[in-house]
Amino acid sequence: MHDERIVWKGSVMTSPLPPALVTCGDMDKPNILTIAWTGTLCTQPPKTYISIRPERYSYGIIEKSREFVINLPTSKLVRAVDFCGVKSGRDVNKFEAMGLDICNASAVKAPVLCDSPLSLECRVTDIVKLGSHDMFLADIIAVSVDPKYIDKNGRLTLEKAGLIAYSHGDYFALGEKLGDFGFSVRKKKTQTKKSKKKANNKHKA
Amino acid sequence: MHDERIVWKGSVMTSPLPPALVTCGDMDKPNILTIAWTGTLCTQPPKTYISIRPERYSYGIIEKSREFVINLPTSKLVRAVDFCGVKSGRDVNKFEAMGLDICNASAVKAPVLCDSPLSLECRVTDIVKLGSHDMFLADIIAVSVDPKYIDKNGRLTLEKAGLIAYSHGDYFALGEKLGDFGFSVRKKKTQTKKSKKKANNKHKA
């Protein structure tokens, strides 16, 4: 009964994904584009990637500078997220069109998007040709955070940033929190800080 | 003023990501583990990856079989998503523990998780050593869909599946829909099916 699934040919349907706002170039001549083909590759050393079509304007910029910044997208930025995925920096200054401000990054020449709660400063290590897209493997060399998402105890309150997800052509706000890592094996009534820490240490991504 | 961001050393904070339920092995000796280090690498040909720590039980299984299935996670499966990320198949039968049923895949020996709305059947092409994790690059060779998410017109209604996202240690349901691809450049009152199609064709991931 369960086996009555419908089978389609292979296609890229992993979801939800972050529709990341990727900045490149430098403070004088920046560009920005939206990339959902991104994610984490390795925890230590911290490695990520973005996959880009060679015909995109930013491809040549990043190929040359070998640097980019992944800015996490939020509900407030959703119109810019969409616009920066549809429009090309060849034709329009997307920062001006969407009223986006840029800040200095700490470790790369590429700018950081000031309105993003958290940005990953990345340096390209390899470019891998795959077909429609080339994968830019990169080391994450610094993280830039909006201080308003750091609480009194120094904890990052990223859950307050209003992050958004991309799924099958739609943008969604994150909704109800369903649990935190390790909740399925944690004892409910006898939970202590120690046991929580222990569960977190078991994290095997 | 905007430049007053806090800078941390590099770390893997891309989010939200899908906490995918990855199945491997075969119908007689299956295993399952949760992997958020996944995403789309290339649209055509369709390529994805999973990054796995070599010490994980599934690493050897996938290294040998060179096949796996990415099953999209849902709210109903959130306890299993967490459990399968914390526990090892060396110590426990995670399918039995979480009451998970498996179905035959169409193109690989690895099983499909029957309760997942959509599963990507993958064949490994390369294993890249990166550090704590190795990246398994793979071709997506088939997609298996629960027919209840296909409407009368043959459209995939993935928005009804209750997909979940993983962000900074927490699991979230997808919340409010904020827009669909191309909404920022679409004319509001004169929108036709044709213009919508045109906007979708401009999708440059």
Could you explain the architecture of this structure?
The structure is a homodimer of 205-residue chains. The first copy, chain A, has helices spanning 57-65, 78-86, 94-98, 193-201; strands at 6-9, 20-25, 30-35, 38-42, 47-52, 67-71, 102-103, 112-113, 118-129, 134-145, 164-167, 170-180. In chain A, strand 2 and strand 3 form a beta hairpin. In chain A, the strands form 3 sheets. Chain A has a 7-stranded antiparallel β-sheet with strand order 3-2-6-9-10-5-4. The first copy, chain A, has a two-stranded antiparallel sheet with strand order 7-8. A two-stranded antiparallel ribbon of chain A has the order 11-12. The first copy, chain A, is an alpha+beta fold and 205 residues long. Chain A contains 4 helices and 12 strands; from the N terminus they run βββββαβααββββββα. Mean pLDDT of chain A is 92; it is low at 198-205. Chain A folds into 2 domains: 20-173, Pnp Oxidase, Chain A (Roll); 179-205, no CATH class. Chains A and B meet through strand 1, strand 4, strand 5, helix 2 and strand 9 of A and strand 1, strand 4, strand 5, helix 2 and strand 9 of B. Strand 1 (6-9) of chain A pairs antiparallel with strand 10 (134-145) of chain B, so a sheet runs across the interface.
